Amino acid sequence: MSPQSESAGITELLLHWKAGDPSALAQVIENIYPELRRIAASRLRSQSPNATINPTELLHEAWLRLSQSRGMTFEHRAPFYAATAVIMRNVLVDRARAKGAAKRDSANSLPVYLPSSPGFDLPEIDRALNALELVCQRQARQVDLRFFGGFTADETADILEISPATLKRDWLAARMFIKNFIESGQ
Hints:
With 186 residues, the protein is mostly helical.
């Protein structure tokens, strides 16, 4: 199946899910499971070797949260992938917070790295992304897609329907915003 026809099939299934067919979401997941698992594995590769979740668990928890969400609808695959990346981010943040609450030792927090940035823990990045979303939603989506979703720059530009030059500018601005936000202690 070509990427265009696969994308059209996913879009059609997402529209069926929006219309109230709960089995359509399961079919979407089945069709894109290998890609989503690749994304989850990519995301976890940058985690601490002591991470308490594997790619399958991350993907299943994200799918469970997505399937239980009410009011979420998607017209096509781009917002679906963006929502999946945000949900994976939320799963990882929840796990990091639970781990931190259990140990109450910041030295044991789950370190996460943005490329070319010092290590920050996941709840810090989550707070910074929430603040960035208020300033520039597109930049925040890009970080979700690239950092949490594991998408390449080209895939992200395609999903967000922006040029590579805009993507590059947004990526640099988003990284700077996150770094400054965290370093300022907000």
